[in-house]
Amino acid sequence: MKADDVARYLQDHPQFFEQYHELLAHLYVPHPHGGRAISITERQILTLREKGRTLESKLSELLRFGEDNDVISTRVHALSIALMTAGSFDAVMNALREQLSEGFSVPHTALRLWNSVLTRDSEVFLPVDEGVRVFANEARQPYCGPVNNLGVEGWFGEAASAVQSIALVPLRRDARVVGLLALGANDDARFVPDMGTLYLERIGELLGAALIRELG
To answer: Which among 165, 120, 114 has a CA at the least distance from the CA of 135?
Structure first.
């Protein structure tokens, strides 16, 4: 009889060890970490302990993620209040930069708007390359990662050379893209391709609503 046949038999006949329970005290298997042989019962206990440690580690990780999300949610809420209470276009821009810098520790923030009926004397309304517009229109979610070939890092002015990673958040009015928010970091691990973008999307929605309110 092959080992597979034995395993299948025991799976199909769980009452086997009820009928031959004394075998449990006399069957020995190798210790999972080498060394002496141990009983099946002791091996089961070790297996359960290892599973318990694995579950405990996963639970700790989930709790840590939950705590991090609570912190981010609090910061997004503060940004929401700041944008809601801003009484002008300049106030919206100041609130955005202040909240992203102090609340989210984002050192570099830049913004470009287009397709707006009203404009202001601000770099925010400077012309952008067609490639940037195409990128923003086609993006299904914010881009996070190293500086790409769009040239957006130039929006950060003198700080452009220090930027190692960026996040690009399209701003929409209804279904139409009206601008792009660029966030820059001096750390290449701050914005990475596999990071979650939910909160970036929320920030983009909040900023878009505040700008639409001020620009009409």
So the answer is: 114
List Cβ neighbours of 102 (8 Å cut-off, separation of 6 or more): none
Question: CA-to-CA distance for 102 and 100, rounded, in angstroms?
Answer: 6
Contact between residue 195 and residue 185 where contact means Cβ atoms under 8 Å apart? no
Phi then psi for residue 65, to 5 deg, are -60, -40
How many CA atoms lie less than 13 Å away from 65 in the CB half-sphere? 8
pTM for the structure as a whole: 0.69
Q: Please tell me the distance from the alpha carbon of residue 109 to that of residue 124, in angstroms, as a whole number.
A: 11
Is the pLDDT assigned to residue 171 strictly greater than 70? yes
The whole-number average pLDDT for the span 181-186 is: 96
Question: Computed from CA positions of residues 89, 92, 98, 104, in that sequence, does the dihedral angle turn out positive or negative?
Answer: negative
- 176 burial class (0-12, 13-18, 19+ CB within 10 angstroms)? exposed
The answer on pLDDT for 163 being more than 80 is: yes
Res 167 pLDDT > 70: yes
Per the prediction, the chain carries an average pLDDT of 83
189: DSSP letter: T
